[in-house]
Every structure is written in structure tokens, then in C-alpha cells.
Amino acid sequence: MAFKALTKVRVKVDVKPVMENLVFRLHYRYTYLIYMTSVVLSTLHGIIGKKIDCMSGVPSPSFGKVVNNYCFIMGTFTVDRLHGVKVGVDAPHPGVGPHKSEEAITFHTYYQWVPFVLFFQGVMFYLPHWLWKAWEGGLFKQAIQDLAIRDYLGKNLKNYVNRKDMFRTLSKYVIHHMDRHTTWAHKFFFCEFLNLGVVIATLFFTDWFLGGEFLTYGSNVFAVSGMDPENRTDPMSFVFPKMAKCTFRSFGASGTIQVRDVMCLIATNIINEKIYIFLWVWLVLLTTVTSLWLVFRLLTIFIPWLRYFILRMHTNEAARVQVSRVMKEVSLSQWFLLLSLAHNMESSIFSEFLIHFDNELETSSNPKILRNSEES
């Protein structure tokens, strides 16, 4: 029963009329889903044990809990000099070992904020879609009516029989009312560029969040992946150390301040390093694909004949003449609406609509014909 219901939901989602292209959906649907999944994974401490476990050297469970909480909240650190040394000989773990007060150290205080940052970034990827839906206001759904592909699935042929009436209504709307929505396409294009702005901002914000290591994180990881583990400096151990140091101060039995240099196992970084290497690959690919798509979008905005060929690709031979005539009359917003209709209609149905639209356009542009049609 549950599987059957899930299948129905999936089909409905896959075939419902949509205006957003695949690149747009990569942002608000797939990237948003990736980030929300990452939020869940980053908080699953139960599958890896404690989120942090420090060796205090004191045989007291309560004291150990205090040290763990303190080091998780205040952060840990690694010694820069001990990264790249031979593990097991010069240091027990990368970046872990004795250090002098003048030596450079790197503090790691980000990991408690990882789920919150991932959630915030996921919401930002959904923002352009939400903004477009607020601006669009259901215009496309109202325009396409029952002419989408999904409305011809099954045995109900009512929509197909009445398609000419719907063609007439839609044609009149595009011709006589689209002037009220002259900025409709511009708002959509703005949201597309906003998608690029969000992904670029995410890259640089994540780089700042991880101490300037994220932009080169993936390339550094792949560069050393084929090297001998015993003779390489793993970038993941520098950005997401599994073992780190923490300084904990407390009072002794006589009131003297005792300083403990403890070593902590940061189990949560086992998941964090996998999350961020995947995010690095995904964001780089997403930035590249989005940039190429926006170059194409700029070409369609500034080159009218390119818009003609794009619309022509969605029609059959019977409507090729009508495409040429229609493109001489429609605005950018009208062309974009026609293209969105083409993406959601079967090719023969859209071609038939375009022929009807061309006839309606010719009639409305001829005052004499329009007057005669109104009198009749």
C-alpha cells in the first residue's frame, strides 16, 4: 500500500508542468536535497560513537565528560610543524605532538557549527526558486491549463477533443494580456543568475568557514590519492583532523592551577571530511554547468535568430512557417512563455497550437479582420 502510494507521488512529481529547466532544478531540488542530507549525516554521532573523546589521564568518568564538552565547545588545535612528518616516528598523528609557545598552531573550532552552516546553505539554494514562485504567482499553470503532457496520459480524451477551445483561449491570453507581464521573463532570468551567485558565494563562504582550505581541498585530496599513505600529507587530516590537541586547565587538590595537554579523537570529522569532499566536487561541477548555461541564456537574450531556431526545434515540419512569422511579432517574454509551453507539451500538440496562435496573431493585428470577427 505504501509503495503504491509512493509510486503515484513520484509519477505526479515527474510529469507535472514545470517552467524551471534542468540547471535550475539542480539548484533548488538536488543541491538542496544534498545539503539537507548532509545536515542529517553530520549529526549522526551515534553511528560513529562519541562526537569527541579526549584522553584526560584522570580515572573519573565525570571529569572526562567535562573535558570532552570543554574541548568540543572551545575547539582543538594541531601543530603546523607536525603536518607532513612521518607518522609513528616524528609524531603519533598528523599535527599532534609537543609544541613550543612560539610555534604556529591551527585551531579547529568549526565542527560544532557544521550542521547549522549546511542547513543555512541548503536554504540559500532554495531561495531563488521560492523567489521565482512568489513573482510568477501561478501564471504558467493558468496559461497552460490542461495542455501539458500529463493531461494526455490515460484513457481520458476530453482534453484532446476540446484542445481547439484551449488553443483559442491561450492564444488570446498571450496576445492580449502578456503585456501586463513584460518583466516576467526578466525575473526568471534574474533568478537564474541568482543561482550562480548563490553557488559562488557558497564556495567562498565555505572556504572562509574552513580556514581558507576549501577552494583547493578537492584538488589537493585527488592529487595525493595515488601516493603512498606512509609518505604523503593527507589534506583531509589538516582540514578535518581525527586526532587533535586540547589544553584544559583546572584546579588541583591544593588549589593550584593544573594544565593538561590532552589528545582528542574527533569522530565527527570522519563524516565531515566525506561530506565536504563530495560538496567540493558537486559545487565545482554545478558552478561550471551553471556558468555555461548562463552564457547560453545571454546569447538567447541578445540574439533573436537564436531564439527562432530554439523554438523551431520544438515543432514539426507543419509549423515551421508559422514559427518564422510568430517570431517577428512576439516579445522576449512571449517567446519565453511559448518555449516553456513547448517544454511541457507533446511536439505535435505544440505545433498545432502554434499554427492556431499564428492565425490568431494575424487576425488580431489586422483591424479590419478583427472588426469583422467582433461583429459576427
3D architecture notes:
Helix content is 61%, strand content 8%. With 376 residues, it is mostly helical. α2 packs antiparallel against α4, α2 runs antiparallel to α11 and α13 crosses α15. The longest helix has 35 residues.
Topology (elements, then pairings):
Layout (H helix, E strand, L loop, with lengths): L1 H14 L6 H21 L10 E3 L5 H14 L1 E4 L25 E4 L5 H23 L2 H6 L13 H4 L1 H15 L6 H26 L7 H8 L10 H5 L3 E9 L5 E9 L2 H35 L1 H9 L7 H8 L4 H13 L2 H18 L2 H9 L1
Antiparallel strand pairs: 1-5, 2-3, 4-5
In helices, the fraction of residues equals 55-70%
Spatial strand arrangement across the major sheet: 1-5-4
* Strands, total number: 5
Radius of gyration: 30 Å
The chain-level mean pLDDT equals 78
Shape: elongated
Low-confidence stretches: 1-15, 151-155, 366-376
Following the backbone from N to C, one meets helices and strands in this order, namely HHEHEEHHHHHHHEEHHHHHH
Strand coverage percent: 5-15%
Class per helix and strand makeup: mainly alpha
Number of helices: 16
| Largest sheet features | 3 strands, antiparallel
Q: State the distance separating the first and last CA atoms.
A: 56 Å
Assembly annotation: single chain
